[in-house]
Amino acid sequence: MVESGELWGRAARQGGNATAQAWRGSIPKDAKPGSVEFYTTVKPKPYDRSLPGQGAWEAGKEAGVNSFVKDGDEWASIPIIITEAR
């Protein structure tokens, strides 16, 4: 993410469109190494269409979400600007 400036996500195991997901809010003090805090100009799914506490960007549903295939898997991606990395 740091190098690409993108957040990527695949489709869930039970199917559906590829979706990039992240926890909302600041990085907790006890976050694991490799955690990042970021912002994006791409609007996520409405709160009532995503899991509690998460932001989700679904390919084909939200404007600004890119969709591509890599190694046979469909991916969704959004541009991000990282504000903190651990």
Please explain how this structure is put together.
- By secondary structure, the protein is an all-beta fold.
- 0% of the residues lie in helices and 42% in strands.
- It is built from no helices and seven strands.
- The strands form three sheets. It has a three-stranded antiparallel beta sheet, with no helix packed on it. The protein has a two-stranded antiparallel sheet with strand order 2-4. A two-stranded antiparallel sheet has the order 3-7.
- Strand 5 and strand 6 (73-79) form a beta hairpin.
- The model has no long low-confidence stretch (mean pLDDT 91).
Give a topology summary.
Elements: E1 6-10, E2 19-23, E3 36-39, E4 54-58, E5 66-70, E6 73-79, E7 81-85
Antiparallel strand pairs: 1-6, 2-4, 3-7, 5-6
By DSSP, the count of extended strands is 7
Evaluate the radius of gyration: 13 Å
* Outline: globular
How many strands, what sense, and barrel or not for the largest sheet?
3 strands, antiparallel
The helical percent reads under 10%
**Averaged pLDDT, please?**
91
Number of helices: 0
Secondary-structure-based class equals: mainly beta
Strand content is 35-45%
**Order of the strands making up the biggest sheet:** 1-6-5
Low-confidence stretches: none
Order of helices and strands: EEEEEEE
Distance between the termini: 12 Å
